Structure formats: C-alpha cells, structure tokens
C-alpha cells in the first residue's frame, strides 16, 4: 500500500507555492516617495525624495541637519549627546524612521508599505 499518492504530491506542491507567495508578498518593501520631518511632535515639513537637498530643523538643543540624496534620507548631524539618530544611516524604504529624542526631531519615509508590527 502506497502512503503518498500523485494527488498528495500536487497538494503539497500547491501548498508550498502558496506559502512562498504569501511570504514574498508580505515581506517585500516598497521604495519611499516622500519624507516627513517632524519637530516636537508636529509636522515641520514634507518633502519629495526626488530632489537632493539639505534641511536644517531647529530644535530645543540646536539644529538638526536632514539630508536627502538619490531617493534616500538620513539625519546628517544632530546636537544630541549620543548621536543614535545619526548612526541610523540612510533610510530607503517606506515606513523606516530615525528619531532624535533629546532634540525632539524625527524623520519618516512615506509611501505604500507592507504591514509590520508598527503599522498593524
């Protein structure tokens, strides 16, 4: 008596392909379209990622410099003592963000994004 029949192989193959498609669809990231710069919890400016630019955002500790280049963004300098937001580096995908808590400044890349634990 055979334990695995031809129909079983077809069902297992279809299930594996379906799982692979779901994983690919849920974990692919889309490129960002714009950048939201927030200061003190309010929107300071929303800018396009198509144009290279440098923005100086005033904050309680001093100025934070945000740089946009080649469709990506980063916090270039900040007066915060530990520089965690500067160390975050270049952000490229929608939903990514860098936050400078002591200076109350944050940047977030906007665009169509996949669901994750933050947006769910």
UniProtKB/TrEMBL annotation:
Q: Which domain of life is it from?
A: Bacteria
Q: Which CDD domains match?
A: NGN-insert_like (cd09910)
InterPro entries in UniProt: NusG_2_sf (IPR038690)
Q: What is this protein called?
A: NusG domain II-containing protein
Q: What Gene3D superfamilies does the entry give?
A: N-utilization substance G protein NusG, insert domain
Q: Which Pfam families match?
A: NusG_II (PF07009)
């Amino acid at each position: 008596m055979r334990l695995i029949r031809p129909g079983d192989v077809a069902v297992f193959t279809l299930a594996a392909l379906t799982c692979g498609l779901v994983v690919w669809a849920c974990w692919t990231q889309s490129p960002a379209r714009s950048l939201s710069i927030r200061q003190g919890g309010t929107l300071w400016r929303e800018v396009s990622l198509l144009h290279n630019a440098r923005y100086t955002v005033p904050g309680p500790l001093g100025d934070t410099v945000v740089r946009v280049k080649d469709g990506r963004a980063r916090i270039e300098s900040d007066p915060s003592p530990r520089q965690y937001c500067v160390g975050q580096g270049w952000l490229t995908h929608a939903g990514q963000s860098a936050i400078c808590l002591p200076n109350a400044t944050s940047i977030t890349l906007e665009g169509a994004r996949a669901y994750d634990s933050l947006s769910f």
